[in-house]
Write a structure and sequence with these properties.
The chain is mostly helical. 59% of the residues lie in helices and 0% in strands. Helix 1 packs across helix 2 and helix 1 (2-15) packs antiparallel against helix 5. It starts with a helix and ends with a helix.
Length: 96
């Protein structure tokens, strides 16, 4: 959920100059409170030090990415599995 919140923050910063101004004034905590960051991520983001908002977003991406719980992917069998069975048995089954 935090990655989506970061995307929303960046998107909003494009149309709302107050976000960049808040960062420059050292009040980014007030801004990120409006988004659905996990509490520990919000705390970490509030402590980031960056010279520009662009640098902040880069550092924030790293923080959010590291805090994400990886989604376990579904392991599917190979499509070739079952096509290449026991070769000896398949040779015997070919009858003309």
């Amino acid at each position: 959920m935090s990655m989506q919140a970061l995307n929303q923050l960046v998107a909003r910063s494009i149309i709302d100059p107050n976000i960049v101004k808040s960062h420059a004034a050292g009040q980014i905590d007030d801004v990120i409170a409006d988004f659905e960051f996990a509490p520990e991520v919000r705390k970490h983001l509030g402590g980031l030090e960056a010279n520009s908002f662009a640098e902040f977003t880069l550092l924030a991406y790293r923080v959010v990415k590291a805090a994400e719980v990886p989604v376990r992917s579904i392991e599917l069998p190979s499509p070739a599995e079952g096509l290449f069975g026991d070769q000896d048995q398949s040779d015997r089954e070919h009858v003309a």
